Amino acid sequence: MASGAEGIVDVTKPSPTARERIVAGAADMISRRGLNATSIRETAKHARAPLGSTYHYFPEGKQQLATEAVRFTGAWAARSLRRELEAGPVAGLRAFLDLWRGIVVDSDFRAGCPVLAVSIEEPPAGETPTALAAAAGVFEEWEGLLAGSLREHGVEPEQAAQLATLIVAAVEGTVAMCRAKRSTQPLDHTAAQLQALVLGAITD
Amino acid sequence: MASGAEGIVDVTKPSPTARERIVAGAADMISRRGLNATSIRETAKHARAPLGSTYHYFPEGKQQLATEAVRFTGAWAARSLRRELEAGPVAGLRAFLDLWRGIVVDSDFRAGCPVLAVSIEEPPAGETPTALAAAAGVFEEWEGLLAGSLREHGVEPEQAAQLATLIVAAVEGTVAMCRAKRSTQPLDHTAAQLQALVLGAITD
DNA sequence: GCGGCTTTATGACAGTCGTTATAAAGCACG
DNA sequence: CGTGCTTTATAACGACTGTCATAAAGCCGC
After folding, report:
1. Residue numbers in B near A3 (CB within 8 A)
2. Which range of residues forms the domain containing residue A117?
3. Grouped pLDDT means (10 residues each) for chain B, 204 residues
4. Which of A29, A147, B95, B112 could disulfide-link A160, Cβ–Cβ 3.0 to 4.6 Å?
């Protein structure tokens, strides 16, 4: 059975609740198949939870589940990013890259970023689904963390914001390219370029 | 009705055949909803072609249609890229960025890149769908064009290859971020950073 | 033990999906 | 006129979808 979710699940908690398992499993499945191809039935089965439970925990249905999956992944990456950024932007960048490299490699190039997957689903006319808004928020959180660290190391605010956007966008795009090519070479290329870029931007 | 396909269709050809309309429409729909959410029925309706015609022109079904849609988009972007790169890597980069900016803006942040959309669909166990392989080929073609131009302007081969990967990945990721945020600001950030990067890398 | 809440279980609804089969229509060529 | 090929039309197949309703089970504090 698909076992990629374990990479995202917080292993410090020994026995996650059924609700947490559903969210983590949904994040994993969305990162593999996209939002539309992820059915609530399989999500429940993947978490060994009954279908009824899904609508018990997420009464607003699929949108709510997707929204929580996006936020879950966002917080998971932000946690790691925040921790590693204490050692500076280069260390944070490396951690961010390694995080997604792990997802891609461990899944044999079958999983990626669920936030990206949700971002490229066409919203219904006239409205913005909560999951899409959550994806925008996650991107902003990641960018904010990176930009803040860059500023703390002497990068001008505007330059820091631009560079943070580039980092997040490049990593997301690179993960997708790695999946298509079934190779980590794009990640190697992007890592080298981004590291040199950050090194040249900071003042220490 | 959705009218984003016109941006991709070659307007120099006055009356595209039914087959071409189906492919262009499929590329547009995949760029909006992803591969799985794009049904053959709607693809046919979108191209004002009967469902039966779809299986007449694409006897291998959805995979074949997706493959041709990916290649179609890849060739369309490569054509523009090749033309603008004659004026140098900076001009090529700008054209590549503007190309996708147009898709995003004209669709009111509802469309993106179908190549990326196909790249993030989980392949069936053990095999690589032709559409996914086509996506990898398109990425490689775009990277090759950019890297070649960079080399012609004095960039070392390895550096050129890495920078080309970064450009393609960043643009793809940025387009997705623009859709989530419903804003072109990510593209502005990425454009500024990539332009400065290319300018600093070339020798003229 | 026992009400009252949370969670699970089961089944059904109307709809869409990819795909195939079969037949009708359009149409160029001799 | 007719023959043969391309294209369209229509219907059907089994499978899957999100969602909801309803009932059973589990489990808490009292």
Report:
1. none
2. 4-201
3. 39 63 95 96 91 91 96 97 97 98 97 98 91 98 98 97 98 98 98 98 89
4. A147
